[in-house]
Amino acid sequence: MAENRHDDKTAGRGRRSTVRSLLRLWPYARAVRGRLAVSATAATLGMLTTLAVPVVLGRIVDGPVADHDSGALWPLVGLVLALGLIEAGLFYTRRVVLSRPLADLEARMRADLFGKLQRLPVAFHDRWGSGQLLSRAGSDLYVIRLFLAFALVFLVVNSLTFLAGAAVMFSLDWRLALIFLAPAVPLLLITRRFEGRYSDASRRAQDQNGDLATVVEESVLGIRILKAFGRHRSMADRFREQSRELRRTELRKAHLLANLWSVVTGLPELAVCCALAVGSYLVAHDQLSAGDLVTFLSTALALRFPVESLGWLLAYANEASTAADRVFEVLDTPEADDPGTRADLGTEPDGIRLTGVRFRYPDAPEDSPDLLAGVDLHIRSGETMALVGATGSGKTTLTALLPRLYEPTAGTITLDGRDIRELPRQRLRELVAVAFEEPTLFSATVRENVLMGAPDASEAQLRSALATAQAGFVDRLPEGAGTEVGEQGLSLSGGQRQRLALARAVVGDPAFLVLDDPLSALDVHTEALVERALREVLGSTTALVVAHRPSTVLLADRVAVLADGRIEAVGTHQELLRDCPHYRELMSGEAAPVPEGSSAR
Ligand SMILES: Nc1ncnc2c1ncn2[C@@H]1O[C@H](COP(=O)(O)OP(=O)(O)OP(=O)(O)O)[C@@H](O)[C@H]1O
Fold this sequence. Notes:
This protein has about 600 residues and is of the alpha/beta class. The chain folds into 2 domains: about 25-330, ABC transporter transmembrane region fold, CATH 1.20.1560.10; about 350-585, Rossmann fold. Helices cover about 60% and strands about 10% of the residues. It is built from 23 helices and 12 strands. Strands 6-9-10-3-11-12 form a 6-stranded mixed β-sheet, with helices on both faces. A 4-stranded antiparallel β-sheet has the order 2-1-4-5, with no helix packed on it. A hairpin with a 2-residue loop joins strand 11 and strand 12. Helix 7 (about 130-170) packs antiparallel against helix 14 (about 310-330). The longest helix has about 55 residues, at about 230-285. It is elongated, with a radius of gyration of 35 Å. The two termini are about 45 Å apart. Adenosine-5'-triphosphate binds near residues 371, 389, 391, 392 and 393.
Protein backbone atom coordinates (compact mmCIF):
# COMPACT_ATOMS: atom_id res chain seq x y z
CA MET A 1 0.00 0.00 0.00
CA ALA A 2 1.12 3.45 -0.87
CA GLU A 3 1.08 4.89 2.63
CA ASN A 4 4.29 3.23 3.67
CA ARG A 5 6.11 3.72 0.43
CA HIS A 6 8.15 6.57 1.77
CA ASP A 7 9.83 4.17 4.19
CA ASP A 8 12.10 2.72 1.54
CA LYS A 9 13.08 6.21 0.50
CA THR A 10 13.72 7.60 3.97
CA ALA A 11 15.36 4.44 5.28
CA GLY A 12 19.10 4.61 5.30
CA ARG A 13 19.26 8.38 5.29
CA GLY A 14 22.16 9.28 7.49
CA ARG A 15 22.35 12.33 9.70
CA ARG A 16 21.54 15.09 7.31
CA SER A 17 23.06 18.51 7.29
CA THR A 18 20.57 21.35 7.24
CA VAL A 19 23.05 23.74 5.67
CA ARG A 20 24.11 21.30 2.95
CA SER A 21 20.48 20.62 2.04
CA LEU A 22 19.69 24.33 1.90
CA LEU A 23 22.77 25.06 -0.21
CA ARG A 24 21.31 22.80 -2.88
CA LEU A 25 18.69 25.51 -3.44
CA TRP A 26 21.39 27.89 -4.63
CA PRO A 27 21.05 27.15 -8.38
CA TYR A 28 17.45 28.35 -8.11
CA ALA A 29 18.10 31.15 -5.60
CA ARG A 30 21.01 32.46 -7.73
CA ALA A 31 18.52 34.01 -10.16
CA VAL A 32 17.09 36.16 -7.36
CA ARG A 33 20.37 36.86 -5.55
CA GLY A 34 20.24 40.57 -6.41
CA ARG A 35 16.75 40.89 -4.98
CA LEU A 36 17.72 38.85 -1.94
CA ALA A 37 20.62 41.24 -1.36
CA VAL A 38 18.34 44.30 -1.69
CA SER A 39 15.83 42.73 0.68
CA ALA A 40 18.53 41.81 3.21
CA THR A 41 20.01 45.33 2.97
CA ALA A 42 16.58 46.91 3.52
CA ALA A 43 16.00 44.61 6.50
CA THR A 44 19.46 45.35 7.95
CA LEU A 45 18.97 49.11 7.59
CA GLY A 46 15.54 48.69 9.21
CA MET A 47 17.12 46.90 12.15
CA LEU A 48 19.87 49.51 12.47
CA THR A 49 17.17 52.18 12.53
CA THR A 50 15.53 50.29 15.35
CA LEU A 51 18.86 50.22 17.19
CA ALA A 52 19.41 53.95 16.60
CA VAL A 53 16.25 54.81 18.56
CA PRO A 54 17.73 53.74 21.97
CA VAL A 55 20.83 55.83 21.28
CA VAL A 56 18.63 58.91 20.66
CA LEU A 57 16.63 58.08 23.81
CA GLY A 58 19.88 58.03 25.84
CA ARG A 59 20.81 61.42 24.36
CA ILE A 60 17.35 62.79 25.36
CA VAL A 61 17.78 61.57 28.97
CA ASP A 62 21.35 62.85 29.35
CA GLY A 63 20.66 66.05 27.37
CA PRO A 64 17.31 67.92 27.35
CA VAL A 65 15.81 65.93 30.28
CA ALA A 66 18.85 66.30 32.58
CA ASP A 67 19.24 69.99 31.55
CA HIS A 68 15.48 70.75 31.67
CA ASP A 69 15.93 72.17 28.15
CA SER A 70 12.63 71.64 26.30
CA GLY A 71 13.87 73.59 23.24
CA ALA A 72 16.55 70.96 22.58
CA LEU A 73 14.00 68.17 23.05
CA TRP A 74 11.93 68.70 19.86
CA PRO A 75 14.63 68.07 17.24
CA LEU A 76 15.45 64.77 18.97
CA VAL A 77 11.76 63.77 19.12
CA GLY A 78 11.53 64.64 15.41
CA LEU A 79 14.53 62.39 14.80
CA VAL A 80 12.79 59.44 16.54
CA LEU A 81 9.73 60.06 14.35
CA ALA A 82 11.87 60.18 11.19
CA LEU A 83 13.60 56.94 12.18
CA GLY A 84 10.16 55.32 12.58
CA LEU A 85 9.09 56.46 9.09
CA ILE A 86 12.34 55.24 7.53
CA GLU A 87 11.87 51.87 9.21
CA ALA A 88 8.34 51.56 7.77
CA GLY A 89 9.65 52.40 4.25
CA LEU A 90 12.42 49.82 4.55
CA PHE A 91 9.94 47.18 5.77
CA TYR A 92 7.78 47.80 2.67
CA THR A 93 10.81 47.59 0.36
CA ARG A 94 11.93 44.30 1.92
CA ARG A 95 8.55 42.69 1.31
CA VAL A 96 7.81 44.04 -2.13
CA VAL A 97 11.21 43.43 -3.66
CA LEU A 98 11.07 39.67 -3.15
CA SER A 99 7.46 38.65 -3.51
CA ARG A 100 7.22 38.36 -7.31
CA PRO A 101 10.68 36.83 -8.03
CA LEU A 102 10.11 34.22 -5.33
CA ALA A 103 6.71 33.31 -6.75
CA ASP A 104 8.55 32.89 -10.10
CA LEU A 105 11.21 30.76 -8.42
CA GLU A 106 8.56 28.51 -6.88
CA ALA A 107 6.87 28.17 -10.28
CA ARG A 108 10.21 27.29 -11.90
CA MET A 109 10.97 24.60 -9.34
CA ARG A 110 7.46 23.21 -9.75
CA ALA A 111 7.87 23.12 -13.53
CA ASP A 112 11.21 21.30 -13.17
CA LEU A 113 9.66 18.79 -10.79
CA PHE A 114 6.73 18.20 -13.11
CA GLY A 115 9.02 17.82 -16.13
CA LYS A 116 11.14 15.34 -14.19
CA LEU A 117 8.06 13.31 -13.18
CA GLN A 118 7.13 13.08 -16.85
CA ARG A 119 10.57 11.84 -17.80
CA LEU A 120 11.02 9.35 -14.98
CA PRO A 121 10.44 5.71 -15.91
CA VAL A 122 7.18 3.93 -15.11
CA ALA A 123 9.05 1.80 -12.55
CA PHE A 124 9.62 4.98 -10.49
CA HIS A 125 5.90 5.79 -10.46
CA ASP A 126 5.12 2.20 -9.44
CA ARG A 127 7.12 2.75 -6.25
CA TRP A 128 5.94 6.22 -5.22
CA GLY A 129 2.51 7.04 -3.86
CA SER A 130 0.95 9.88 -5.85
CA GLY A 131 0.25 11.79 -2.61
CA GLN A 132 3.98 11.84 -1.86
CA LEU A 133 4.61 13.45 -5.23
CA LEU A 134 1.70 15.87 -4.85
CA SER A 135 2.91 17.06 -1.45
CA ARG A 136 6.41 17.59 -2.83
CA ALA A 137 5.07 19.67 -5.72
CA GLY A 138 2.72 21.58 -3.39
CA SER A 139 3.49 22.16 0.27
CA ASP A 140 7.24 21.44 0.12
CA LEU A 141 7.86 24.06 -2.55
CA TYR A 142 5.70 26.52 -0.60
CA VAL A 143 7.81 25.94 2.52
CA ILE A 144 10.98 26.58 0.50
CA ARG A 145 9.57 29.84 -0.84
CA LEU A 146 8.64 31.04 2.66
CA PHE A 147 12.12 30.20 3.87
CA LEU A 148 13.76 32.21 1.10
CA ALA A 149 11.32 35.11 1.56
CA PHE A 150 11.61 35.49 5.33
CA ALA A 151 13.76 33.09 7.25
CA LEU A 152 16.89 33.33 5.09
CA VAL A 153 16.76 37.14 5.03
CA PHE A 154 16.22 37.31 8.79
CA LEU A 155 18.89 34.75 9.61
CA VAL A 156 21.38 37.09 7.93
CA VAL A 157 19.84 40.32 9.19
CA ASN A 158 19.35 39.17 12.76
CA SER A 159 22.94 38.00 13.00
CA LEU A 160 24.15 41.39 11.74
CA THR A 161 21.79 43.23 14.09
CA PHE A 162 23.00 41.13 16.98
CA LEU A 163 26.63 41.95 16.18
CA ALA A 164 25.81 45.67 15.78
CA GLY A 165 23.84 45.66 19.07
CA ALA A 166 26.68 43.86 20.87
CA ALA A 167 29.15 46.48 19.55
CA VAL A 168 26.93 49.29 20.90
CA MET A 169 26.73 47.52 24.28
CA PHE A 170 30.50 46.98 24.52
CA SER A 171 31.07 50.64 23.65
CA LEU A 172 28.83 51.63 26.58
CA ASP A 173 30.11 49.21 29.26
CA TRP A 174 31.97 45.94 28.71
CA ARG A 175 30.86 44.43 32.06
CA LEU A 176 27.15 44.88 31.29
CA ALA A 177 27.74 43.61 27.74
CA LEU A 178 29.33 40.40 29.05
CA ILE A 179 26.41 39.86 31.46
CA PHE A 180 23.95 40.24 28.58
CA LEU A 181 25.88 37.96 26.23
CA ALA A 182 26.66 35.21 28.76
CA PRO A 183 23.53 33.10 27.88
CA ALA A 184 24.78 32.81 24.27
CA VAL A 185 26.86 29.70 25.10
CA PRO A 186 24.05 27.57 26.64
CA LEU A 187 21.72 28.87 23.92
CA LEU A 188 24.03 27.58 21.18
CA LEU A 189 24.28 24.14 22.82
CA ILE A 190 20.53 23.90 23.28
CA THR A 191 19.71 24.94 19.70
CA ARG A 192 22.10 22.31 18.33
CA ARG A 193 20.26 19.61 20.24
CA PHE A 194 16.94 21.04 19.12
CA GLU A 195 17.96 21.10 15.49
CA GLY A 196 18.58 17.34 15.28
CA ARG A 197 15.32 16.41 16.97
CA TYR A 198 13.21 18.94 15.15
CA SER A 199 14.62 17.95 11.80
CA ASP A 200 13.63 14.28 12.36
CA ALA A 201 10.11 15.25 13.43
CA SER A 202 9.78 17.64 10.54
CA ARG A 203 10.76 14.98 7.98
CA ARG A 204 8.32 12.52 9.54
CA ALA A 205 5.49 15.09 9.41
CA GLN A 206 6.14 15.93 5.77
CA ASP A 207 6.22 12.25 4.79
CA GLN A 208 3.02 11.59 6.76
CA ASN A 209 1.43 14.54 4.97
CA GLY A 210 2.28 12.89 1.65
CA ASP A 211 0.81 9.56 2.81
CA LEU A 212 -2.35 11.31 3.89
CA ALA A 213 -2.64 12.95 0.48
CA THR A 214 -2.31 9.48 -1.11
CA VAL A 215 -5.21 8.15 0.99
CA VAL A 216 -7.37 11.14 0.04
CA GLU A 217 -6.52 10.72 -3.63
CA GLU A 218 -7.21 6.97 -3.64
CA SER A 219 -10.51 7.49 -1.80
CA VAL A 220 -11.67 10.12 -4.27
CA LEU A 221 -10.66 8.10 -7.33
CA GLY A 222 -12.11 4.90 -5.92
CA ILE A 223 -15.22 6.43 -4.35
CA ARG A 224 -17.62 4.20 -6.33
CA ILE A 225 -15.89 0.99 -5.25
CA LEU A 226 -15.63 2.14 -1.66
CA LYS A 227 -19.33 2.93 -1.56
CA ALA A 228 -20.37 -0.18 -3.47
CA PHE A 229 -18.49 -2.41 -1.04
CA GLY A 230 -19.51 -0.34 1.95
CA ARG A 231 -15.82 0.30 2.70
CA HIS A 232 -16.02 4.06 3.09
CA ARG A 233 -16.05 3.66 6.87
CA SER A 234 -12.90 1.57 6.95
CA MET A 235 -11.22 4.03 4.59
CA ALA A 236 -12.33 6.85 6.90
CA ASP A 237 -10.83 4.89 9.83
CA ARG A 238 -7.56 4.55 7.94
CA PHE A 239 -7.60 8.26 7.20
CA ARG A 240 -8.36 9.04 10.84
CA GLU A 241 -5.52 6.83 12.07
CA GLN A 242 -3.05 8.44 9.69
CA SER A 243 -4.17 11.96 10.58
CA ARG A 244 -3.80 10.99 14.25
CA GLU A 245 -0.22 9.97 13.56
CA LEU A 246 0.38 13.25 11.78
CA ARG A 247 -1.21 15.10 14.68
CA ARG A 248 1.11 13.31 17.12
CA THR A 249 4.13 14.33 15.05
CA GLU A 250 2.91 17.93 14.78
CA LEU A 251 2.37 18.02 18.55
CA ARG A 252 5.89 16.70 19.06
CA LYS A 253 7.16 19.52 16.82
CA ALA A 254 5.13 22.08 18.78
CA HIS A 255 6.45 20.64 22.05
CA LEU A 256 10.07 20.86 20.89
CA LEU A 257 9.49 24.40 19.63
CA ALA A 258 7.80 25.45 22.89
CA ASN A 259 10.78 24.12 24.89
CA LEU A 260 13.22 26.01 22.73
CA TRP A 261 11.06 29.10 22.81
CA SER A 262 10.93 29.17 26.62
CA VAL A 263 14.73 28.99 26.82
CA VAL A 264 15.30 31.46 24.00
CA THR A 265 13.00 34.06 25.54
CA GLY A 266 13.70 33.24 29.22
CA LEU A 267 17.50 33.46 29.19
CA PRO A 268 17.75 36.95 27.60
CA GLU A 269 15.07 38.25 30.03
CA LEU A 270 17.16 36.94 32.91
CA ALA A 271 20.24 38.56 31.43
CA VAL A 272 18.41 41.90 31.04
CA CYS A 273 17.34 41.73 34.74
CA CYS A 274 20.92 41.07 35.84
CA ALA A 275 22.19 43.89 33.60
CA LEU A 276 19.54 46.21 35.08
CA ALA A 277 20.64 45.40 38.66
CA VAL A 278 24.36 45.77 37.93
CA GLY A 279 23.72 48.83 35.72
CA SER A 280 21.72 50.61 38.47
CA TYR A 281 24.58 49.88 40.91
CA LEU A 282 27.07 51.38 38.44
CA VAL A 283 24.88 54.51 37.92
CA ALA A 284 24.50 54.87 41.73
CA HIS A 285 28.30 54.77 42.06
CA ASP A 286 28.83 57.22 39.19
CA GLN A 287 30.53 54.62 37.05
CA LEU A 288 27.86 54.94 34.30
CA SER A 289 25.55 57.75 33.21
CA ALA A 290 21.77 57.29 33.47
CA GLY A 291 21.51 58.01 29.72
CA ASP A 292 24.00 55.25 28.90
CA LEU A 293 22.06 52.81 31.06
CA VAL A 294 18.83 53.77 29.21
CA THR A 295 20.62 53.26 25.87
CA PHE A 296 22.03 49.92 27.04
CA LEU A 297 18.69 48.59 28.28
CA SER A 298 16.78 49.87 25.22
CA THR A 299 19.37 48.20 22.98
CA ALA A 300 19.05 44.97 24.97
CA LEU A 301 15.27 45.13 24.56
CA ALA A 302 15.64 45.87 20.83
CA LEU A 303 17.82 42.75 20.52
CA ARG A 304 15.03 40.63 21.96
CA PHE A 305 13.42 40.09 18.55
CA PRO A 306 16.63 38.89 16.83
CA VAL A 307 17.32 36.50 19.71
CA GLU A 308 13.74 35.29 20.22
CA SER A 309 13.18 34.81 16.52
CA LEU A 310 16.01 32.29 16.56
CA GLY A 311 13.49 29.58 17.49
CA TRP A 312 11.19 29.98 14.52
CA LEU A 313 14.01 30.79 12.14
CA LEU A 314 15.69 27.50 13.00
CA ALA A 315 12.36 25.71 12.67
CA TYR A 316 11.83 27.31 9.24
CA ALA A 317 15.35 26.46 8.14
CA ASN A 318 14.84 22.87 9.22
CA GLU A 319 11.54 22.49 7.47
CA ALA A 320 12.90 24.09 4.32
CA SER A 321 15.92 21.78 4.32
CA THR A 322 13.65 18.76 4.78
CA ALA A 323 11.44 20.03 1.96
CA ALA A 324 14.54 20.55 -0.22
CA ASP A 325 15.67 16.97 0.56
CA ARG A 326 12.27 15.63 -0.43
CA VAL A 327 12.16 17.63 -3.66
CA PHE A 328 15.74 16.69 -4.62
CA GLU A 329 15.04 13.02 -3.91
CA VAL A 330 12.80 13.19 -6.96
CA LEU A 331 14.99 15.54 -9.01
CA ASP A 332 18.08 13.37 -8.35
CA THR A 333 16.45 10.11 -9.43
CA PRO A 334 18.26 8.93 -12.55
CA GLU A 335 16.19 9.08 -15.69
CA ALA A 336 16.11 6.25 -18.16
CA ASP A 337 19.05 6.73 -20.52
CA ASP A 338 18.40 7.87 -24.06
CA PRO A 339 20.95 6.78 -26.65
CA GLY A 340 21.33 10.32 -27.98
CA THR A 341 21.58 8.95 -31.52
CA ARG A 342 19.42 9.70 -34.52
CA ALA A 343 19.18 6.01 -35.35
CA ASP A 344 16.04 4.85 -37.12
CA LEU A 345 14.56 1.51 -38.06
CA GLY A 346 16.73 -1.07 -39.78
CA THR A 347 16.39 -1.45 -43.55
CA GLU A 348 15.31 -5.11 -43.61
CA PRO A 349 11.60 -5.65 -42.88
CA ASP A 350 12.20 -8.06 -40.02
CA GLY A 351 9.21 -7.14 -37.83
CA ILE A 352 9.48 -7.48 -34.04
CA ARG A 353 12.02 -9.91 -32.63
CA LEU A 354 12.48 -10.73 -28.93
CA THR A 355 15.55 -12.77 -28.08
CA GLY A 356 16.21 -14.21 -24.60
CA VAL A 357 14.15 -11.45 -22.98
CA ARG A 358 14.05 -11.63 -19.19
CA PHE A 359 12.26 -9.31 -16.80
CA ARG A 360 11.39 -9.03 -13.13
CA TYR A 361 9.82 -6.13 -11.24
CA PRO A 362 12.26 -4.47 -8.84
CA ASP A 363 9.94 -5.13 -5.89
CA ALA A 364 9.29 -8.80 -6.74
CA PRO A 365 10.09 -11.17 -3.83
CA GLU A 366 13.73 -12.26 -3.96
CA ASP A 367 12.97 -15.96 -4.08
CA SER A 368 10.44 -15.62 -6.91
CA PRO A 369 11.47 -16.65 -10.44
CA ASP A 370 11.78 -14.00 -13.17
CA LEU A 371 8.36 -13.05 -14.56
CA LEU A 372 9.77 -13.33 -18.07
CA ALA A 373 12.50 -15.94 -18.10
CA GLY A 374 13.88 -15.98 -21.64
CA VAL A 375 11.20 -14.99 -24.14
CA ASP A 376 12.05 -15.76 -27.78
CA LEU A 377 9.44 -14.54 -30.25
CA HIS A 378 9.47 -13.35 -33.84
CA ILE A 379 6.55 -11.38 -35.24
CA ARG A 380 7.15 -11.12 -38.97
CA SER A 381 6.80 -7.81 -40.72
CA GLY A 382 3.13 -7.10 -41.45
CA GLU A 383 2.01 -10.00 -39.26
CA THR A 384 -0.46 -9.80 -36.39
CA MET A 385 0.51 -12.01 -33.46
CA ALA A 386 -1.93 -12.71 -30.64
CA LEU A 387 -0.43 -13.25 -27.21
CA VAL A 388 -2.35 -15.52 -24.87
CA GLY A 389 -1.54 -16.86 -21.44
CA ALA A 390 -3.03 -17.42 -18.02
CA THR A 391 -3.92 -14.36 -16.00
CA GLY A 392 -0.81 -12.96 -14.34
CA SER A 393 1.52 -14.75 -16.75
CA GLY A 394 3.11 -11.45 -17.82
CA LYS A 395 1.36 -10.56 -21.08
CA THR A 396 0.82 -6.89 -20.20
CA THR A 397 4.37 -6.68 -18.89
CA LEU A 398 5.72 -8.08 -22.16
CA THR A 399 3.81 -5.51 -24.21
CA ALA A 400 5.14 -2.71 -21.99
CA LEU A 401 8.71 -3.68 -22.92
CA LEU A 402 8.22 -2.78 -26.61
CA PRO A 403 7.81 1.01 -26.10
CA ARG A 404 10.42 0.75 -23.28
CA LEU A 405 7.99 1.59 -20.47
CA TYR A 406 10.10 -0.98 -18.59
CA GLU A 407 13.58 -2.19 -19.44
CA PRO A 408 14.24 -5.93 -19.85
CA THR A 409 16.74 -7.25 -17.30
CA ALA A 410 18.37 -9.29 -20.10
CA GLY A 411 17.92 -10.07 -23.77
CA THR A 412 17.21 -7.87 -26.77
CA ILE A 413 14.20 -6.56 -28.64
CA THR A 414 14.61 -5.41 -32.23
CA LEU A 415 12.26 -3.60 -34.64
CA ASP A 416 13.14 -4.31 -38.26
CA GLY A 417 16.56 -5.40 -37.05
CA ARG A 418 17.24 -2.27 -34.92
CA ASP A 419 17.74 -2.77 -31.18
CA ILE A 420 15.11 -0.58 -29.48
CA ARG A 421 17.78 0.71 -27.08
CA GLU A 422 19.50 2.38 -30.03
CA LEU A 423 16.37 4.29 -31.06
CA PRO A 424 15.72 7.68 -29.46
CA ARG A 425 12.74 7.27 -27.14
CA GLN A 426 10.69 9.89 -28.97
CA ARG A 427 11.19 8.03 -32.26
CA LEU A 428 10.50 4.64 -30.68
CA ARG A 429 7.19 5.88 -29.33
CA GLU A 430 6.22 7.30 -32.70
CA LEU A 431 6.89 3.89 -34.22
CA VAL A 432 5.15 1.80 -31.56
CA ALA A 433 1.58 2.80 -30.69
CA VAL A 434 -0.09 1.26 -27.66
CA ALA A 435 -3.66 0.83 -26.40
CA PHE A 436 -3.89 -0.50 -22.87
CA GLU A 437 -6.67 -2.55 -21.39
CA GLU A 438 -7.37 0.20 -18.87
CA PRO A 439 -7.98 3.21 -21.14
CA THR A 440 -6.99 6.52 -19.60
CA LEU A 441 -8.45 9.74 -20.94
CA PHE A 442 -7.20 13.15 -19.94
CA SER A 443 -9.28 16.21 -19.07
CA ALA A 444 -9.32 17.51 -22.63
CA THR A 445 -11.50 17.28 -25.72
CA VAL A 446 -12.06 14.02 -27.58
CA ARG A 447 -9.96 15.42 -30.43
CA GLU A 448 -7.03 16.28 -28.13
CA ASN A 449 -7.23 12.86 -26.47
CA VAL A 450 -7.16 10.98 -29.76
CA LEU A 451 -4.54 13.19 -31.40
CA MET A 452 -2.10 12.52 -28.56
CA GLY A 453 -1.27 9.52 -30.71
CA ALA A 454 -0.22 11.78 -33.62
CA PRO A 455 -0.34 15.53 -32.93
CA ASP A 456 0.14 16.39 -36.62
CA ALA A 457 -2.63 14.13 -37.93
CA SER A 458 -5.27 15.72 -40.18
CA GLU A 459 -9.00 15.92 -39.51
CA ALA A 460 -9.47 13.14 -42.10
CA GLN A 461 -7.07 10.86 -40.20
CA LEU A 462 -8.92 11.64 -36.96
CA ARG A 463 -12.22 10.72 -38.59
CA SER A 464 -10.76 7.53 -40.03
CA ALA A 465 -9.30 6.47 -36.64
CA LEU A 466 -12.66 7.13 -34.94
CA ALA A 467 -14.35 5.08 -37.66
CA THR A 468 -11.90 2.17 -37.20
CA ALA A 469 -12.60 2.21 -33.46
CA GLN A 470 -16.36 2.35 -34.20
CA ALA A 471 -16.49 5.55 -32.13
CA GLY A 472 -19.49 6.99 -33.95
CA PHE A 473 -20.89 7.99 -30.56
CA VAL A 474 -18.50 10.98 -30.69
CA ASP A 475 -20.78 12.71 -33.22
CA ARG A 476 -23.65 12.46 -30.78
CA LEU A 477 -21.72 14.15 -27.96
CA PRO A 478 -22.84 17.75 -27.22
CA GLU A 479 -19.90 19.29 -29.11
CA GLY A 480 -18.79 16.33 -31.19
CA ALA A 481 -15.02 15.78 -31.16
CA GLY A 482 -14.68 19.12 -29.34
CA THR A 483 -16.46 17.78 -26.23
CA GLU A 484 -14.44 17.83 -23.02
CA VAL A 485 -14.07 14.35 -21.53
CA GLY A 486 -12.00 12.88 -18.69
CA GLU A 487 -12.10 13.73 -15.02
CA GLN A 488 -13.25 17.32 -15.51
CA GLY A 489 -15.48 16.62 -18.50
CA LEU A 490 -18.14 14.28 -19.65
CA SER A 491 -18.00 10.79 -18.17
CA LEU A 492 -17.83 8.11 -20.84
CA SER A 493 -18.62 4.43 -20.47
CA GLY A 494 -15.81 1.85 -20.27
CA GLY A 495 -16.49 0.71 -23.84
CA GLN A 496 -16.54 4.29 -25.15
CA ARG A 497 -13.25 5.06 -23.43
CA GLN A 498 -11.73 1.89 -24.81
CA ARG A 499 -12.76 2.85 -28.34
CA LEU A 500 -11.17 6.32 -27.98
CA ALA A 501 -7.97 4.68 -26.68
CA LEU A 502 -8.01 2.41 -29.71
CA ALA A 503 -8.51 5.41 -32.02
CA ARG A 504 -5.55 7.08 -30.27
CA ALA A 505 -3.39 4.03 -31.00
CA VAL A 506 -4.26 3.77 -34.69
CA VAL A 507 -4.54 7.46 -35.66
CA GLY A 508 -0.89 7.85 -36.65
CA ASP A 509 -0.82 4.70 -38.84
CA PRO A 510 1.96 3.32 -36.63
CA ALA A 511 4.49 0.87 -38.04
CA PHE A 512 4.06 -1.30 -34.94
CA LEU A 513 0.91 -1.64 -32.92
CA VAL A 514 0.56 -3.10 -29.43
CA LEU A 515 -2.98 -3.72 -28.22
CA ASP A 516 -3.62 -5.06 -24.73
CA ASP A 517 -6.98 -6.78 -24.90
CA PRO A 518 -8.44 -3.75 -26.70
CA LEU A 519 -11.98 -5.05 -27.07
CA SER A 520 -12.62 -6.40 -23.58
CA ALA A 521 -15.22 -3.77 -22.63
CA LEU A 522 -17.25 -3.93 -25.85
CA ASP A 523 -20.55 -5.68 -26.40
CA VAL A 524 -20.53 -8.56 -28.89
CA HIS A 525 -22.09 -6.49 -31.67
CA THR A 526 -19.67 -3.53 -31.37
CA GLU A 527 -16.75 -5.95 -30.94
CA ALA A 528 -17.59 -7.57 -34.29
CA LEU A 529 -17.76 -4.15 -35.97
CA VAL A 530 -14.44 -3.00 -34.46
CA GLU A 531 -12.81 -6.29 -35.42
CA ARG A 532 -13.87 -5.90 -39.01
CA ALA A 533 -12.45 -2.37 -39.16
CA LEU A 534 -9.33 -3.35 -37.22
CA ARG A 535 -8.53 -6.10 -39.69
CA GLU A 536 -7.88 -3.43 -42.28
CA VAL A 537 -5.56 -1.48 -39.97
CA LEU A 538 -3.76 -4.64 -38.89
CA GLY A 539 -3.22 -5.54 -42.53
CA SER A 540 -0.77 -2.65 -42.91
CA THR A 541 1.10 -2.90 -39.64
CA THR A 542 3.08 -5.35 -37.49
CA ALA A 543 1.06 -5.99 -34.37
CA LEU A 544 1.09 -7.75 -31.03
CA VAL A 545 -2.38 -8.18 -29.58
CA VAL A 546 -2.97 -9.52 -26.08
CA ALA A 547 -6.05 -11.69 -26.32
CA HIS A 548 -8.24 -13.41 -23.77
CA ARG A 549 -11.05 -14.44 -26.10
CA PRO A 550 -11.12 -16.52 -29.25
CA SER A 551 -12.82 -13.65 -31.09
CA THR A 552 -9.77 -11.43 -30.49
CA VAL A 553 -7.40 -14.28 -31.29
CA LEU A 554 -9.04 -14.57 -34.68
CA LEU A 555 -7.79 -11.10 -35.60
CA ALA A 556 -4.29 -12.51 -35.64
CA ASP A 557 -2.29 -14.47 -38.20
CA ARG A 558 -0.58 -16.53 -35.51
CA VAL A 559 -0.82 -16.98 -31.77
CA ALA A 560 1.94 -17.18 -29.14
CA VAL A 561 1.29 -18.90 -25.81
CA LEU A 562 3.07 -17.44 -22.78
CA ALA A 563 3.62 -19.77 -19.83
CA ASP A 564 6.18 -19.87 -17.02
CA GLY A 565 7.92 -16.80 -18.40
CA ARG A 566 8.59 -18.32 -21.83
CA ILE A 567 6.83 -18.72 -25.17
CA GLU A 568 5.53 -22.24 -24.92
CA ALA A 569 4.17 -22.55 -28.44
CA VAL A 570 3.57 -20.48 -31.58
CA GLY A 571 1.15 -21.39 -34.35
CA THR A 572 -2.20 -20.70 -35.91
CA HIS A 573 -5.30 -20.96 -33.77
CA GLN A 574 -6.11 -24.34 -35.36
CA GLU A 575 -2.59 -25.74 -34.93
CA LEU A 576 -2.48 -24.77 -31.30
CA LEU A 577 -5.95 -26.15 -30.59
CA ARG A 578 -4.70 -29.40 -32.05
CA ASP A 579 -1.18 -29.56 -30.58
CA CYS A 580 -1.09 -27.42 -27.40
CA PRO A 581 -3.12 -28.69 -24.42
CA HIS A 582 -2.41 -25.49 -22.46
CA TYR A 583 -3.85 -23.39 -25.29
CA ARG A 584 -6.91 -25.65 -25.50
CA GLU A 585 -7.39 -25.15 -21.79
CA LEU A 586 -7.04 -21.36 -22.07
CA MET A 587 -9.57 -21.22 -24.89
CA SER A 588 -11.89 -23.87 -23.52
CA GLY A 589 -15.47 -23.00 -22.83
CA GLU A 590 -15.34 -20.14 -25.28
CA ALA A 591 -13.80 -21.77 -28.34
CA ALA A 592 -15.52 -20.01 -31.20
CA PRO A 593 -16.16 -21.55 -34.56
CA VAL A 594 -13.43 -20.46 -36.90
CA PRO A 595 -14.81 -18.28 -39.67
CA GLU A 596 -14.00 -19.03 -43.32
CA GLY A 597 -11.09 -17.02 -44.65
CA SER A 598 -9.77 -15.96 -41.22
CA SER A 599 -6.01 -16.23 -41.13
CA ALA A 600 -5.41 -17.45 -37.59
CA ARG A 601 -6.65 -20.93 -38.12
N1 LIG B 1 4.11 -2.55 -11.53
C1 LIG B 1 4.26 -3.77 -11.02
N2 LIG B 1 5.09 -3.99 -9.98
C2 LIG B 1 5.25 -5.22 -9.48
N3 LIG B 1 4.62 -6.32 -9.93
C3 LIG B 1 3.78 -6.16 -10.96
C4 LIG B 1 3.55 -4.89 -11.55
N4 LIG B 1 2.66 -5.04 -12.57
C5 LIG B 1 2.35 -6.37 -12.60
N5 LIG B 1 3.02 -7.03 -11.64
C6 LIG B 1 2.96 -8.47 -11.39
O1 LIG B 1 3.46 -9.14 -12.53
C7 LIG B 1 2.65 -10.27 -12.83
C8 LIG B 1 2.19 -10.23 -14.28
O2 LIG B 1 1.34 -9.14 -14.48
P1 LIG B 1 0.76 -8.78 -15.93
O3 LIG B 1 -0.17 -7.63 -15.75
O4 LIG B 1 1.87 -8.62 -16.90
O5 LIG B 1 -0.03 -10.13 -16.26
P2 LIG B 1 -1.08 -10.42 -17.42
O6 LIG B 1 -0.65 -11.72 -18.02
O7 LIG B 1 -1.21 -9.27 -18.35
O8 LIG B 1 -2.40 -10.61 -16.59
P3 LIG B 1 -3.92 -10.39 -17.04
O9 LIG B 1 -4.22 -11.40 -18.07
O10 LIG B 1 -4.68 -10.63 -15.79
O11 LIG B 1 -4.05 -8.98 -17.55
C9 LIG B 1 1.50 -10.30 -11.84
O12 LIG B 1 1.82 -11.25 -10.85
C10 LIG B 1 1.53 -8.90 -11.22
O13 LIG B 1 1.21 -8.97 -9.86
